[in-house]
């Protein structure tokens, strides 16, 4: 038996842990682009902000798209609710609220991540330290994930946590693709240009997949392969298909445990079936942007339905 | 003014006391540098596990640690037996007093406690008149604050019959000591405290409503994660294996209190609440309370839920009632109180007020309804100006205050940068009441960390120690 409020806390705790890490990943990819392509740096930072869903809030505060400004806004500015620091703090507040549902190891890893990031992000980041700060953020969230997977019982508590993780991750991957969908389109004038090559690598970097891509596809970056990898690959841990495989699975566990299926089950199953049946060619033919926009909308709806069906809205 | 205090380890006159002899032998073999290291280890453990508390009214409030000292406070088996007899008697009397005061009020008719002390008291809840809680128990969890001033003299400083806190520190202090010094626990037989959560759970289950079918569902009610004692609420719920709920999770469904779960509403039979009376039910008490459950008092009056501690128990630990405790104990148990009170002047009485005003620089003066060491004056430690200002407050509303002599509380050594140094301590043992009375051997020792200070409250810079009752 689980309180609705506890399910809510677990769900959001994990969404925010995922988000804290995704912000670091986005800044990492942006930094790489800015270092190698100095002319288009500000454009690149703009798309980082778009992917983070923070572009409007950013422009209210800053005029220049510089590494220092973007990193500050996405990593340490607590007035931005999605910044790594704000996300880790929200995750920890949720963890505190659901403490009795977590193993000691899990709680301590979240608490320690919060303590160490709070210390590290207390002052503006020196640009020379940015890479090590990004590493530290990823390390802290990796420790949380490790303690969580290593010690938590696979019950409803685990299920609600995973739902939060995968709803957030699917949203993140879809947004990254949608911001850059145009560089993946087979438009003649751009194909094969070096600019595209960097853009493509940047997409892969923002989901930490620039190395694993080569294990699966040819060494050369091809837009259809990149889209295929991030959307349809079953083995790639940040692909949309991968996220929905686990969303459907954890919802099925909950449905079986409670002996009841809800609207969220139908929504997740439908999206999963669509991803399974789809080919990347079909997706491009029907329009990549339309596909992603629909996906993001349905994914948001799934989150709402889960909250409604399990009484934590 | 410095008071000559009785040191529980090494009194000046008689030398090392027996309960400490084995510990002292061990201590002498230790490298001081290693002990300092252990002290730092302890702080890391506490911070890592998030054992923190919030201090009200401070800007940079968020979270602080209660300092922990690694020198245990040691009590012999014999001393403990004497203490427990006194505590049991007192706790029986507290429950009998509550039952009487909300029913026939014999003690008022007998003139042993003044009627106006009850009628005008905010802690007295007219809503509880004629209500008999399940199993007849009013105060289920009690913390009795005890001070010592010599080898044989123990006094009750105050009773905590509402929602005594701090038991999680008792448990975590022991856990920490066992992690830091496992070898000590092999050398010295210390009675265990770690089964407290199980005892609490059994105790709560034993006072379930009569109508409960099967195993009762128990929950801990917390004001929420921003409450200063939230860590303890979560800790106890976790250790007992019960739900930690907030008011927003609960509502009245079909005459029972129920919690909103992922599968719909589930009935609760016993609620261990850590929310004050006035916030418990917005329909009965404070209408602006968002922490309570509308209608829970109706369920309670119908006998369909146990609330621990019962609403209205505050009348038993009120500081104005405190001075009558010797009479109360004798009235209900038929015997003189085994554990005495500290002599107390009731400032509402003109003669006492006169005495208190004349001797203000020697006395400790407390607000009748205050807690946590706020709003009190420690005469000998106060400046002339502070005494004068307080005298004015006192004269303006005498019935709001009581006064007590400044006792030389016993001391116990703590580890400082310069080695061991004596500091004043008190003791809060925890008592569980159901169909029986159980007292966990030990309790929370609070220690004033500042040299010479008598204020042990954590909100005022006090720390804690592990408390050992020897199995001898």
Number of strands of chain A: 0
Q: Tell me, briefly, the overall form of chain B.
A: globular
Q: Could you give the distance between the termini of chain B?
A: 38 Å
Order of helices and strands of chain A: HHHHHHHHHHHHHHHH
Question: Most extensive interface, residues per chain?
Answer: A-B, 25 and 23 residues
Tally of individual domains of chain A? 2
Q: Could you tell me the radius of gyration of chain A in angstroms?
A: 19 Å
Q: Which class do the helix and strand fractions of chain B yield?
A: alpha+beta
The helix count of chain A comes to 16
Name the beta content range of chain B.
Answer: 15-25%
The proportion of residues forming helix of chain B, as a percent range, comes to 25-40%
Radius of gyration of chain B: 23 Å
Determine the number of helices of chain B (DSSP H or I, runs of at least 4 residues): 16
Overall pLDDT score of chain B = 91
Q: Major β-sheet of chain B, in short?
A: 5 strands, mixed
Biggest sheet record of chain A: none
